[in-house]
Amino acid sequence: MISKIIPNRMTRFLIGGGVAAAFNLFLMFLLVDHLGFNTSLLRNFANAISIELSLILSFFIYRLWVWPGGNWNLKGILIRQLPLFNLSAGSAIIIRIFLLFPILDWIGIKYTVNTLLGIIIGATVNYVLSDNLIFRKDDATTPELYYPEGLASAFQDESLGDNRASWLSAPLKFVVNKPLTLSILIPAHNEEGCIEKTIRSMCEILDRNSISYEVLVINDHSQDKTEVLLSQLSSANERVRHINNYLPHGFGFAIRCGLENYKCDAVAIVMADGSDEPEDLIKYYYKLLEGYACVFGSRFIEGGGVRGYPLHKLVINRMGNLFIQALFKLRYNDTTNAFKAYRREVIEGISPLVSHHFNLTVEMPLKSISRGYSYAIVPIRWRNRKTGISKLKIKEVWGRYLFIIFNVFIEMLLSGHVHDYKNMADKRRESNL
Questions:
Q1: Are the C-beta atoms of residues 398 and 313 closer than 8 Å to each other?
Q2: For the packed helices 360-370 and 311-328, what is the interaxial angle rounded to 10 degrees?
Q3: What are the C-alpha distances in Å from 146 to residues 31, 103, 128, 142, 151?
Q4: Higher pLDDT, 66 or 224
Q5: Cross-strand partners of 213
Q6: How far is the CA of 186 from the CAs of 276, 347, 393, in angstroms?
Q7: 195 vs 199, 246, 274, 338, 390, CA distance in Å?
Q8: Nearest to 400 by CA among 286, 250, 299
């Protein structure tokens, strides 16, 4: 009965943490107000005792209710699991105090929101470490993971290898190795310094690999020579075309405009600044040919890499992706990166999109995953732009990211099943045959 009311492991984790926090407060009240631990030294001693006892309580709550099963060997618990659990909780506190709070304060976030985000990020760090280091499967008797109801098909296979995700065995199947046409969608705002080189390098690598493609550039209300250059490139190459964004200015609006106008079987979103490697686009194409619905790149797995990434943005990126990983129970660790590829059926299945700005980079993959579409993960390389100015302003977009993340998460919890999305996609596919 309880598992039906609270089916999600993350929800159980948060409830267990709340019970432990309440127990911590009760112990402090008992020791200070009733047992006379009322000097400075004794209060610190009482605080240490209450924290440790509440950690032990939370450990057994998680062990029994959140991650049941596994090895209950007393030596393993005392020597490995409990010390690691204390280390996990301590790491979360250190990250909040010495890393997260200073960054959020520098961004200019109010202390109340700062504290709330600190609690959320701290809990996320503790959850990820607990899930991967402390309560991992130790033997064959450990129960399977508790996926959100109806969403196991979206999460069962997220390996980096060639295993098929469950979408391929669902009612809607994609033909493996069937030739695909590919649209390269590039949003461009004041990119006169790099747009020509980006387009030429993309066309060259696609031509070399005999891939049928179009390059569609969305001129997002540019005020420099971007549109002039696009007109010249379109005249010189019939596979290159551009349109002016008829929606308001913004990265998300530009992408949405392009998704209303691309012509091919699949679409890849590429940045105009040349930060994405053209060769990685070929990896995406061949993964789509294997039958995957989506292809996501990661800069932070073996074979991937970044060059010239500003340190403060890198730290915030890693913390944000860690939070998304824990919330949605993903192994994929680069959700915020824009460079991804989707089949047309996926674009139709995740519509309508609502993001106006860079938070669209999160909305599209999270909706794809939560609605049951298969995806492959490949390593990619990224380098910081050499010309122009980055359009991503962290101080301006953090709230939008949180809105989209929780929007998709709530939809995932309340929708119950992904079958409705799959059936709609199946009908759209059949109507196009």
A1: no
A2: 20
A3: 38, 34, 15, 12, 10
A4: 224
A5: 182
A6: 11, 16, 19
A7: 6, 20, 8, 17, 14
A8: 250
Which amino acid, residue 266? A
Domains defined for the chain, CATH in brackets: 2-134 (no CATH), 152-432 (3.90.550.10)
Q: Which secondary structure element, helix H or strand E, spans residue 60, and what is its range?
A: helix 40-61
Place of tokens 């998680």: 62
Q: Is the dihedral of CA 177, 333, 124, 87 positive or negative?
A: positive
Taking the CB of residue 279, how many other CB atoms lie within 10 A of it? 13
For residue 215, is pLDDT > 70?
Answer: yes
How many CB atoms lie under 10 A from the CB of residue 136?
Answer: 13
- Distance between CA 301 and CA 284 in Å, rounded? 16
Q: What angle do CA 16, 17, 18 make, to 5 degrees?
A: 90
DSSP reduced 3-state for 331: coil
Tokens of residue 201, six digits: 């390098």
Q: Are 347 and 365 in contact (CB under 8 A)?
A: no
Cα 325 from chain centroid? Answer: 6
pLDDT tens, position by position, 144-177: 332 332 333 333 433 333 333 333 334 344 666 6
Largest CA distance in the chain: 85
Number of H helices, E strands in the chain: 17, 9
What is d(CA 132, CA 401) in angstroms, rounded to the nearest whole number? 25
182-188 vs 213-219, strand pairing mode: parallel
In the three-class reduction of DSSP (H, G, I as helix; E, B as strand; rest coil), residue 294 is classed as strand
Alpha-carbon gap, residue 423 to 404, rounded angstroms: 24
pLDDT per position as a tens digit, 361-399? 999 999 999 888 999 999 999 988 666 555 555 555 667
Q: List Cβ neighbours of 338 (8 Å cut-off, separation of 6 or more).
A: 269, 271, 358, 361
Q: How far apart are CA 40 and CA 27, in angstroms?
A: 17
Cis peptide before 179 (omega within 30 of 0): no
